[in-house]
Automatic annotation (TrEMBL):
Recorded GO CC terms: plasma membrane
Listed Pfam families: HATPase_c (PF02518)
Gene3D superfamilies assigned: Histidine kinase-like ATPase, C-terminal domain
Membrane topology: Multi-pass membrane protein
Catalytic activity: ATP + protein L-histidine = ADP + protein N-phospho-L-histidine
Alphabetical list of PANTHER family matching this protein: HISTIDINE KINASE, PHOSPHATE REGULON SENSOR PROTEIN PHOR
GO biological process, one term: cellular response to phosphate starvation
Family annotation (InterPro entries): BphY/WalK/GraS-like, HATPase_C_sf, HATPase_dom, His_kinase_dom, Sig_transdc_His_kin-like_C
Keywords: ATP-binding, Cell membrane, Kinase, Membrane, Nucleotide-binding, Transferase, Transmembrane, Transmembrane helix, Two-component regulatory system
Compartment(s): Cell membrane
Membrane-crossing residue ranges in chain numbering: 12-31, 37-59
Protein name, per record: histidine kinase
Xref: SUPFAM superfamilies: ATPase domain of HSP90 chaperone/DNA topoisomerase II/histidine kinase (SSF55874)
């Protein structure tokens, strides 16, 4: 900051000083104070004001010069350190800038973490989707002696896996823009569950899994598309960890506070220490790592979508006995806050 700029910043103080000098001069003139005294008073006021402005400028100049130098040298930097303030006004400004800088830094750190997670997911997804593609190519190259029906059946399995991977990537990419793409209405949950089971009919039949479903109509308020994906993930999770001849049971309950959809399987269960982390991104757990197709994303997405819909998702399990996933539908919910 130049001296002229500093004087401009003090223009209101100097204007007030001029008004005071004029007032004092008028009083002395009307009171016959004498021209000499009038000159001395005005000269003294002027010299004091000049001294105040000059000393103040050199005192403040270090702060302004240091700030200007840092801005010029670190124009592209996001974390330019601020000089130490010299008075109350500067302290207030510096405190505000540091507070804003901290908020921006926190936000930037969060965005960087989200970008890393996104990149990690993309890399993981690429490896996942390459497996059924490679398997399909091997089937086409080496399946010449295989019966046509068996070949088609196996290719359909691999295509279904690719379709599931693509659908998962689609929902993962849209989860941040969820509020632009949902419509809450009354959803026939019993019908939605039946459709989800029908889509997975082949693994149910292949593994000879016994199915139990309620017969009564059951309605909840939700978005049918997103809720269907949540149910699909719960069904897929049960099928993945339930052995041949096992059972998958659906139940629908209601009380004064909420409605519930329960999906219970007789699979391998979850070890107690893994239960708190079941819905974490990418978490597969001790038992899940034994399954090559476990990515840890299905239940994570189901949980996130349930929360965004105003629902919730919980889990109960006993290792080696059962796993029960529950979707909670609170009866009092303001969907305008989603």
């Amino acid at each position: 900051m130049s001296f002229v700029e500093y004087v401009k910043d003090k223009r209101y103080f100097l204007l007030l000083l001029v008004v005071v000098m004029l007032f004092v001069s008028a009083v002395m003139f009307l009171g016959n104070g004498g021209a000499g005294n009038l000159l001395y008073v005005n000269a003294g006021c002027f010299l004091l004001a000049a001294a105040y402005v000059t000393v103040g400028y050199y005192y403040r100049r270090t702060f302004y010069e240091e700030l200007r130098e840092r801005l010029e040298n670190d124009a592209e930097a996001l974390d330019v350190p601020l000089p130490e303030p010299q008075n109350g006004g500067q302290r207030l400004i510096v405190a505000f800038l540091r507070s804003r800088d901290k908020r921006f830094s926190d936000r930037l750190g969060k965005l960087r973490e989200e970008k890393r997670d996104h990149q990690d997911y993309i890399m993981s997804w690429i490896h996942e989707v390459k497996l059924p593609i490679a398997a399909s190519r091997l089937l086409l190259e080496n399946g010449t002696e295989m019966p046509v029906d068996d070949l088609i059946d196996k290719l359909e399995d691999e295509l279904a896996q690719i379709e599931n991977d693509v659908e998962q990537a689609l929902y993962y990419s849209r989860i941040d823009s969820f509020s632009k793409d949902y419509f809450i209405t009354e959803v026939p949950l019993h019908t939605l569950v039946k459709e989800s089971v029908k889509k997975s009919a082949k693994p149910f039949i292949t593994k000879r899994i016994r199915l139990t479903m309620p017969v009564d109509a059951f309605y909840v308020h939700s978005d049918s598309k997103w809720l269907a994906y949540i149910v699909d993930q719960l069904v897929a999770n049960s099928l993945k960890y339930t052995g041949e001849g096992g059972t998958v049971a659906f139940a629908m309950e209601e009380d004064d506070r909420e409605k519930r959809l329960l999906v219970r399987d007789s699979g391998i269960g979850i070890v107690p220490e893994d239960l708190p982390r079941v819905f974490d991104k990418g978490f597969t757990g001790a038992n899940g790592r034994a399954y090559a197709k476990s990515t840890g994303m299905g239940l994570y997405l189901a949980k996130q979508l349930a929360l965004k819909l105003g629902h919730d998702l919980s889990v109960r399990s006993v290792e080696g006995s059962f796993t029960e996933l529950t979707v909670h539908f609170p009866k009092l919910r303001n969907y305008y806050r989603l």
